[in-house]
């Protein structure tokens, strides 16, 4: 039969160590009998099996090498720490990080209520820490923002490194931190030049660095760019460019937003505290309403988020923003712009509050007049702006969290890290804050901030004497033409 050569070939490929005999029977499929009496019954081959049998020795060797590689990877996984497992994407999944004291105290509760208490206790601790750093002043707040930025960058970059560490890409971590240093040098150098102009002009080294700041920043970045090109390895080009983009997107999300937070802080601590507090309030109240009343899922990216929590968080945050703004608007420590005092070499927050932080009468709509019996109410104008801030924190702010949830689902991880028990990493707590920082900065530039005379004077002082004299004569002629200069001279 035509099947005999095929079976003989299959036995030869299998390399039987003992003599074999092929027994054919018209009623049954052929049998392969060894000298020891064992036999294998031949089953009618399928097309897939025939294709497999026709594979070349080269393909078989390639398959064997892949199997060995899989075994090696399996051994590496088996050798991992007992306290740490890995997801399908290769990212380490930390074990339970709840403190031992809390584990013992809450051992009798279900996992749902245990998580509720852990999150609640740690939330109160973080809020207390937030109050302390506010009391310590703007300088400490800036340092905290910098530390948070570095930690968030570390958490995101670590995910990329954990996924692709088996490729042993050269210089990946070194270049990532080098680019972080370059970007921070550029942004913080710009901030120092803007807000510490007098101090910069007083010191010769700082004056030179300020004058050529952008050129130095570009030279530093160009050095990192060349280092990346030199680190390219054959067969890993696509992966390396992917990680290059990973680093730059992380810098865009983390470093740029933290820079905007510091700019908001210089406008007055109230522009820093109220937006951050609104995001925190919305996060807490959405969790509370969702925990007790949540029934309707909100979005597939975050299955635990519900419409009940979203709506409850919105109204709670708006009310909270109005009340917090009313309390803070009466204190100069919160409403005055943060300025650097050259005489004392320290920050000052003392000023005459602007109209934005002075009580004014507002007429109520007829509907509210009939309900409350009041025709007018006294409010700070900033409270009206706080409604916009709290509304953004409640409606658009959560999309920062959804974005982070999508990112984590892409790599099959629960949290960015396990820095805070019950909450995950620092990035898990600040995913909404960065989006809020951008909105606040745009809002101030669009509706609040006007021309800054102090910055104009700083720029004038940086000009040559002949340029300053030309501007003086032009300004004098303009004021005389307007009829303002004689009145000023008479008043003097």
Q: Which labels suit this protein?
A:
single chain, 492 residues, three-stranded antiparallel beta sheet, two-stranded antiparallel sheet, 21 helices
What would your notes on this structure say?
The chain is mainly α. Helices cover 67% and strands 8% of the residues. It has 21 helices and eleven strands. It has helices at 3-14, 47-53, 57-78, 100-105, 111-136, 138-164, 172-195, 197-202, 204-211, 213-230, 237-266, 269-293, 307-328, 332-335, 366-372, 381-395, 397-410, 426-448, 453-461, 465-482, 485-491; strands spanning 20-23, 31-34, 39-41, 84-86, 92-94, 297-299, 302-306, 339-341, 346-348, 360-363, 376-379. The strands form five sheets. The protein has a three-stranded antiparallel sheet, covered by helices on one side. A two-stranded antiparallel sheet has the order 4-5. A two-stranded antiparallel sheet has the order 6-7. A hairpin with a 2-residue loop joins strand 6 (297-299) and strand 7 (302-306). Helix 11 (237-266) crosses helix 12 (269-293) and helix 13 packs antiparallel against helix 16 (381-395). The radius of gyration is 34 Å and the shape is flat. The relative contact order is 0.08.
């Amino acid at each position: 039969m035509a099947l005999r050569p095929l079976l003989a070939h299959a036995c030869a490929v299998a390399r039987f160590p003992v003599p074999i005999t092929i027994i054919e029977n018209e009623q049954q499929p052929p049998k392969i009998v060894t000298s020891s009496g064992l036999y294998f019954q031949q089953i009618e081959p399928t097309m897939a099996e025939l294709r497999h049998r026709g594979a070349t020795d080269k393909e078989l060797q390639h398959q064997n090498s892949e199997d060995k590689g899989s075994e090696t990877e399996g051994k590496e996984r088996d050798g991992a720490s007992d306290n740490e497992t890995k997801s399908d994407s290769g990212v380490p999944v930390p074990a339970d990080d709840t403190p031992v004291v809390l584990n013992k105290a809450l051992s009798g509760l279900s996992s749902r209520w245990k998580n509720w208490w852990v999150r609640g206790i740690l939330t109160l601790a973080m809020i207390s820490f937030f109050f302390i750093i506010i009391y310590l002043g703007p300088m400490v707040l800036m340092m905290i923002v910098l530390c948070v930025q570095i930690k968030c960058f570390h958490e995101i970059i670590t995910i990329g490194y954990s996924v692709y560490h088996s490729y042993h890409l050269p210089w990946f971590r070194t270049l990532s931190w080098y680019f972080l240093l370059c970007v921070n040098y550029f942004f913080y150098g710009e901030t120092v030049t803007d807000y510490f102009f007098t101090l910069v002009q007083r010191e010769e080294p700082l004056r030179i660095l300020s004058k050529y700041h952008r050129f130095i920043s570009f030279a530093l970045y160009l050095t990192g760019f060349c280092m990346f090109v030199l680190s390219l390895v054959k067969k890993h080009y696509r992966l390396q460019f992917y990680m290059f983009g990973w680093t730059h997107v992380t810098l865009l999300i983390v470093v740029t937003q933290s820079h905007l937070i510091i700019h908001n802080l210089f406008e007055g601590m109230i522009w820093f505290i109220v937006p951050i507090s609104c995001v925190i309030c919305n996060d807490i109240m959405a969790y509370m309403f969702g925990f007790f009343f949540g029934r309707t899922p909100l979005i597939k990216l975050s299955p635990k988020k519900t419409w009940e929590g979203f709506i409850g968080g919105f109204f709670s945050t708006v009310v909270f923003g109005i009340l917090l703004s009313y309390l803070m608007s009466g204190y100069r420590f919160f409403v005055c712009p943060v300025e650097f005092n050259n005489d004392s070499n320290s920050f000052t927050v003392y000023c005459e509050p602007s109209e934005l932080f002075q009580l004014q009468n507002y007429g109520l709509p007829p509907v509210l007049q009939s309900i409350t019996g009041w025709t007018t109410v006294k409010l700070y104008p900033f409270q009206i702006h706080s409604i916009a801030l709290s509304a953004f924190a409640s409606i658009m702010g959560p999309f920062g969290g959804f974005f982070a949830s999508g990112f984590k689902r892409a790599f099959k991880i629960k949290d960015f890290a396990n820095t805070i028990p019950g909450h995950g990493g620092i990035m898990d707590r600040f995913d909404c804050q960065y989006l809020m920082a951008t909105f606040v900065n745009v809002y101030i530039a669009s509706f609040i901030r006007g021309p800054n005379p102090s910055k104009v004077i700083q720029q004038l002082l940086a000009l040559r004497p002949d340029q300053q004299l030309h501007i003086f004569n032009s300004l004098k002629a303009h004021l005389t033409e307007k009829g303002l200069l004689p009145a000023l001279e008479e008043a003097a």
